[in-house]
Amino acid sequence: MKNLKGKSIRTALILIFMLSPVLNAGESTVRLYEEYVNIHIDKSFRAHVYVKFMFTGTRNYSSVLAFPVSDWIVMENFTATWNGKTLVCEKVDAPDGRFYIMVGERYRSVIKFTVPHTGSDNSEHVVSYTYKVPFISLLKDYEAEGYYIEYILKTGSLWKGRLAKLDISVSSDIPFRGTIKHLDRSYTVQPAGAGKWEFTDRDIELDKNLRLLMR
């Protein structure tokens, strides 16, 4: 990605999963048409995140992409693949006092990787990572506290068009006994069996993130 650590950081130059830092989303033939998010919480309160993205229009496509690093969690074991090929990933911090601006939100760091030349019209992109689920108290703003689960989805709106399908699955080996608190217009997951919650929709605009308090 051109000048990723330069003095002037503009939204158009720091696009998550974008075709090129010098192209506008509407000029790209690449379309993100399906996204599958799976988050599993094990008994040690570690979240295992596995996300699959399905793209069309990727023939002759190659680019440097980036993934946002949240201030709320500490990501570990980050991996990314493109059509089964493991990519080299690098965490890049913004200069002191500056941020990467993406869909109106600020991030201190991103993880960047290069997508190799694509010879197929359809491509599969997978990212995975883990994080220790933090316990946070939001009694002032939400009158709630609990174990915090997050996945950033809004940056996917920078791709061309609406998402044909979004599928979110959250599962846990820990028997949370209270109700789930959804924060900041989060996508709303519903119970789908013991220790499992789901959200599915079609023809959807990615205008929210997943932000939950498990109690």
Walk me through this protein's architecture.
The chain has 215 residues and is mainly β. The chain has one domain: Immunoglobulin-like (Sandwich), CATH 2.60.40. It contains no helices and 17 strands. The protein has strands at 31-41, 46-56, 61-69, 76-82, 85-86, 90-93, 100-102, 105-107, 109-118, 122-132, 135-138, 144-151, 163-172, 181-182, 190-191, 196-204, 210-214. It has an eight-stranded mixed beta sheet with strand order 5-4-10-2-1-13-16-15, with no helix packed on it. The chain has a four-stranded antiparallel beta sheet with strand order 11-12-17-14, with no helix packed on it. The radius of gyration is 17 Å and the shape is globular.
Percent helix range: under 10%
Report the mean per-residue pLDDT as an integer. 86
Q: Judging by the overall fold, what is the CATH architecture?
A: Sandwich
Please give the radius of gyration in angstroms.
17 Å
Number of contiguous helices: 0
Which CATH C-level class is it?
Mainly Beta
Would you report the number of β strands?
17
Order of helices and strands: EEEEEEEEEEEEEEEEE
Strand order of the largest sheet: 5-4-10-2-1-13-16-15
Low-confidence sequence ranges? 1-27
| Head-to-tail CA distance between termini | 40 Å
Query: What coarse outline follows from CA principal-axis ratios?
Result: globular
